[in-house]
From TrEMBL:
Residues 555-639 form the Glycosyl hydrolase family 31 C-terminal domain. The chain crosses the membrane at residues 650-669. One of its GO terms (molecular function) is hydrolase activity, hydrolyzing O-glycosyl compounds. InterPro entries: Alpha-glycosidase_related (IPR050985), GH (IPR017853), Glyco_hydro_31_C (IPR048395), Glyco_hydro_31_TIM (IPR000322), Glyco_hydro_b (IPR013780). Residues 255-544 form the Glycoside hydrolase family 31 TIM barrel domain. Pfam families: Glyco_hydro_31_2nd, Glyco_hydro_31_3rd. This is Glycoside hydrolase family 31 N-terminal domain-containing protein. Belongs to the glycosyl hydrolase 31 family. CDD domains: GH31_NET37 (cd06592). Keywords: Glycosidase, Hydrolase, Membrane, Signal, Transmembrane, Transmembrane helix. One of its GO terms (biological process) is carbohydrate metabolic process.
Amino acid sequence: MMPRTVILFCVVLSFSLPIKAAQLVSLIQGDVKLSISQESGKLLLTVVNGSTTKLTGEIGIRTADASSTACIDVPNCFEFGNNRLHVYQHIDYGFTILWTTNVLSKVFEDCFSLGDHHWFGGPERFQQAWPIEKLTLSNFANVLQEDQWGAIVEPYWLNSAGVYIFVDERVPLFINQNTATTQKKVCFSAKAVSPYPQSRQRVILHYTIGVQENARSAHLHAVKNFLGKPTGHPNYRIIERPIWSTWAKFKREVNDEVITAFAKEIVDNGYPNGQFELDDDWEDCYGALTFRQSKFSKITQTVQYIKSLNFTVSLWVHPFINIDCTKYLNLARNYGFLVKDLSGNDLTQWWNSKNREATYLDFTNIEVQEWFVARLKALQKAHGIDSFKFDAGETSWAPTISQLYGDVEKMPNVLSVDYVRTCARLGDLVEVRSAWKTQDLPIFVRMIDKDSNWGLSNGLYTLITTLFQMNLNGYSMVLPDMIGGNGYDGKPSAELFVRWLQANTFMPSIQFSYVPWEFTNAAFNVTQISRKFVDLHQKYAPYIRLQMERSIQEGHPVNAPIWWISPNDATALAMDTEYLLGDDLLVAPIIIQGATSRVVYLPAGEWVDGNNGSTYKGPIELRDYSAPIEVLPYFIKGSLIHNTTDSGSVTLYCVTPIVIFVTVTMVVITG
């Protein structure tokens, strides 16, 4: 019998067992839970509400790869070498993350997925894309800056799921979003490098994640805990009546005769009242705050004449002294009133100077604040000036890195804060353009200069999206820029001018420089159409003021995106070309060149067409709403009926007691 050879085949099965993540932090408030787990050298953060994931991210990038040890007797605190992470709760439904180190070369970075949510807030931008998940930010230093129009830069990100992230003002913050390495993510970094001073004693990344049911309730939560509410509103005169500026129309070609003729021209064309604003190039030299006699030898009489036409008169003012303004430059230098860099240099540049031919007043010095205000009040007393348009104020105009007074961890933005708060002392007719933690001030914050075009490049489209950006950062007293833009690349067309005015009608104020009656060659009557919408704005001015008062009391935006009244509506959350006035008036302007119709989306509710009285039950999409050049699509919510009488007065009758405008007297009655 032949021996049998047995060949055995052995199969070795290899199983890779998943590495279990170590949970470091688990904080719970009601149905809301924040978890931080450590897995493969990464710290993964998740926020859930019930079974719904509202936010995910990776925190401690390039920090969490080190081994961690728990802090002694401090809950939810961990040390990663010289770096410490502390997670805690100090507000209802809010979780605070604090990274800290005394190693000044350390960079902290926490990143969050933008996911499929829409996002709101963020910085003011030249190309103000909305919602802001469309924005690209590359190593963006969160300081007020002229670059790309960053005059309002609150560190606030709000999403459509009802979560917001608010970064503390002491963080030397840089933001990356949608870059090559941060696609569909927003990353908040802390690093002690320019433009932040390196004299700080620590580096921190400190922010709070707030969680609510939806974007509306989350925003009101942020207003209550971080953004704050306005304490008052601008003077009703410049809400109801237009502001007339010399800037876009005349640029620097102004003198007694020019502005006298302009004021008379406005009145002769049927626009008495309002505020007359004398813009650039009235000073002896930039920073003098005295009138140049070669241009304004009769300025006191000129102001008296303009005021006799029932205008208030305001002057354009800035925070600079140019080096050829030697009298005031020498005085400011002698008293230490100028911003200096670390080497003692006080020279800088702005748009009305060449490089190293200007200086910036140091408003963190209380003596500068008092000197500035005293000089402006003397100007008012000498010539009868009523108010001021305060320009600039961004920190980036100052020498880098600036020596300033106050808390080093709040620099350099404290320079802008102190400038704006100083300006606000001059009354309720003033306007500023920079804003940082000044939502409480009862004054207009102006959109930075718009260009005379239709699109995303700082044109008509961005009039609406910048309105959203400002309101959703807590600045509800918005002064839109001039009708038709500033004309830097040429005067606006008649069509652009009219559509811009229409889009502006239900915003807080109207500001002209180009005027309706100068478009004499248009195929339509610009003067007549413009009058219609100026009158419409005036008639709704009491309702605008009512919304400002509501903002003061409750923190609501004056002009919100339409999702504000329907925060779970996916179409409303994505909308970037319609806006609200209060909760009951929806505006859908034409913002595309040559268009005479548009798609209008109405969220849930009963809506009445402001032009023809037609009624609609939302949510509904009006696919081809006709809007020839004389028509602005707008709709009133709440079973309101809109009528226009022969005299042109607007009367609103309310079936459910929301708001009633009483004809002629325009008394506002709330039910």
